[in-house]
Amino acid sequence: MAGTPRRMRPLRNIYAKIAAIPMVLTALVVFVGGTLWTVTYSFTNSKLLPKLNFVGLDQYERLWSNSLWLTSIQNLMIFGILSAVLTITMGFLLAVLMDQKIRFEDTFRTIMLYPFALSFVVTGLVWQWLLNPDLGIQEFVRGLGFATFEFDPLSNPDTVLYGLLIAGLWQGTGFVMCIMLAGLRGIDEDIWKAVRVDGIPRWKTYIFVVIPMMRPVFITTLVLVASGIIRLYDLVVAQTSGGPGNASQVPAMYVYRYMFTAQNLGQGFAASTMMLLSVLIVLIPWAYLEFGGKKNG
Amino acid sequence: MADITSQIPASARTGATAIGSGPRGPKPRRRLSPGNIMLYGTLFVVSVYYLLPLWVMVMTSLKGMPEIRMGNIFAPPVEVTFQPWVKAWSEACTGLNCDGLSRGFWNSVKILIPSVFFSIIIASINGYALVNWRFKGSDVFFTILIFGSFIPYQIMLYPIVILLREMGIYGTLWGLVLVHTIFGMPILTLLFRNYFSSLPEELFKAARVDGAGFWGIYFRIMLPMSLPIFVVAIILQVTGIWNDFLFGVVYTKPELYPMTVQLNNIVNSVQGVKEYNVNMAATLLTGLVPLIVYFASGKLFVRGIAAGAVKG
Asked: ipTM score of the complex?
């Protein structure tokens, strides 16, 4: 580490290299190694223990003919699309409201963001209680005199996803709002002056100028939100336990079930590989857009 | 109906960049313009939506069961009782164990402290090495780390089970601490890397000239200079680890379950009569730690989550 010329010497930066061992091990052994391991074993017929007995695509064929998996995927698609569209729209609208130089901005932000500090388990359980048909919101409104009022999403297989959605939005929109607000604040003040000179109304400015300018912020938010949605697990476990019946099962629950309770590791590996694939579908175009065209750190 | 926003002059927008150009400060406007009423009205309604669950949690946890059965979920308790809190803390049952949530609480504390400590120490050293002591391939590992943070945990669950079993710590608190250290690494490393790279490089160079080495610079210069970012990292990790559910279920045994897992088992147990007041007290107790951290930390929390948003 003395002032010798910079040549490739293994001992150069030796302390830094030693200090980086945990990072290197995590990256190579856990992230790369673990992923490759699971993908490899998804082509085997491992049951209780992982065994390298390759059976080709058998597990995947079984996976895609399993109605529980198909339900899980369908649920995730519906929940995911609605949740992504709504969190981002609502997050952006709230950010626009917050950006009107309002009073008590900190108070409003604190209120909107606190659910994000809470766990999905807490979120799920609170909303399970609020949506309780006998004692929750439904009963409260009926008590006000609307005797036929119906608001019981969690006990109906057709609406249970919307019950989850309400809870998910409650937990996550504050976070999106904060990112969007940071994005809005990053927009050059001169833009606002220019459109004012041109006499363009503010709502038009938002739609035709601000939103296109904030495209990277929207894309980053979408990637963050989407990778969170694919992982969706605790919220469902806490709020509905996958029910009624299997109406609100999600892929992450399927993986857990086959890996740790149904003793069918191969299925669990195949399902988790599909989850990885779905993340890559989101991630690769994003990485391409973000780092592909231009070079920046 | 005119649009709300167009009535607010553009010059009234906030703008840190606008200083020194033209008249300063917002243009005075009427307090009770229709636009303002709509604006604050909307924000008020939104705030009610966000606050109601917290209100209901607190109110339900302070009521007795007969009062809850009357069906007004939003009403404050007629008779305040702390019995549900006591029961949730020390008597609520999970399976055959009836020692309440306190067990889960202490498990979570035992998991939290070493996890926060180790994950932050390791990540700050990573960030420091990545900025000031780059070596061949260091950025490759960092990129893998960042991409790894997007990979669904499910795909790494089982390999880590094997890893922990080989190390002899599967099912122990230390196993879970290791898992939290691993999965906290991407975001924290990013956080520290970004922070250290914003420090003036001359500082590091001057220390090198004075003969300080890797650890000397880390402990004497970097560490004391970066206390705020350590606080951000602590906030991020305390809430993140406390709220974890999946790793707790997978990598520990029932008697070591963290609070979130035990809470779920208490509330969603199918046996016995549902005691909603106890359930809500338990839920609130579990949410209390992150809530306290959140309300005490204010803008630092926002900074922490913003760090996660500027990945890459």
From this structure: 0.88
